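Regression check, magnesium ion case 328:
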Amino acid sequence: MDGFAVEVEGLVKKFGDLVAVDGVSFAVDRGEIFGFLGPNGAGKTTTINMLCTLLAPTAGKARVDGYDVQSQKNEVRRSIGLVFQDPSLDDRLTANENLDFHAVIYAVPPSEREKRKRELLEMVDLLDRAEDLVITFSGGMKRRLEIARGLLHYPKVLFLDEPTIGLDPQTRQYIWEYIEDLKKREDTTIFLTTHYMEEAEHCDRIAIIDHGKIIAMDTSENLKNMVGGDIIRMKTDDDARAEEELRSRYDVNILEDRDCLCFEVDRGDEFIPQLIRDLGVRIQSISLHRPTLDDVFLKLTGREIREEGADELEIMRRTVRVRPPFAR
Ligand SMILES: Nc1ncnc2c1ncn2[C@@H]1O[C@H](COP(=O)(O)OP(=O)(O)O)[C@@H](O)[C@H]1O
Ligand SMILES: [Mg+2]
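Current build output:
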């Protein structure tokens, strides 16, 4: 099918007086990994829920895999896979049983089921745990199983709402390897949300969302270039002379720093080779600091993206499962 995998125009969601999503517009190419990056409460989950037909938009239009999320709900649902922000496996069933349940709901042909289950469990490294109860799984294993489940019906677009929230860095890295592998192997379009800066780096393009609005959208590289220059720190055999030369020849602004020469340039990666070639003083050491997505968010909003305490709350939500005492 031609066209975009996801196409959104002026999407709005209000909850009473609260405008959770405030007129967002964007398009995701087929095969792209597209990320929504923003702090808690920015409107990420609400947007995903509208795209997945779980929530009706207050205004605006959205198409997923070419289908309208309001008038073609069933077609949209068949085209997508969804991994919720909160865990949604039945942990009193085995991994295999969780997948079977999903296969039935999504009408995966019975003749296909065993093959797909095996292939996906292998992909997420859980084949040897297929017959174990999910309750015995670690947080990372559960997340991997949820990703496998989301792929069982071969969706065109996979939605991942905070896929690695509350997981340790090593498990996060592991899950990212699967996501990137998936993109290569299946050409699946991936739409994900995150409030982890480092994680957004894995996306082909990022939309930064704050208070329901997209405040910037581009590749991570271009977003960072927007912030301003790169910082170069340098020591030479004769810093006074080097400084004089930097000022006169390159017109750079020397920043305050006690024990080395520190200055800002537009493209450090291009400036350093030139400097090494042309500077009349021997360089002893040189380092480059590129702006991070944190710097981008800070520049755009004046705030840090990660509020204190948010992560701890998420970890609790993920691990503490409340179940009625007599339900088992
Ligand atoms: N069902 C709901 N009813 C009322 N307010 C909601 C509901 N769902 C989300 N919100 C509010 O909408 C805003 C955006 O929430 P959400 O989309 O979950 O943000 P994010 O996923 O970026 O953390 C928040 O202020 C949240 O409290
Ligand atoms: Mg959310």
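Comparison notes: Confidence is low (pLDDT under 50) at residues 320-328. The domain at 229-289 is CATH 3.30.70.260 (Alpha-Beta Plaits). No diff flagged against the previous build.
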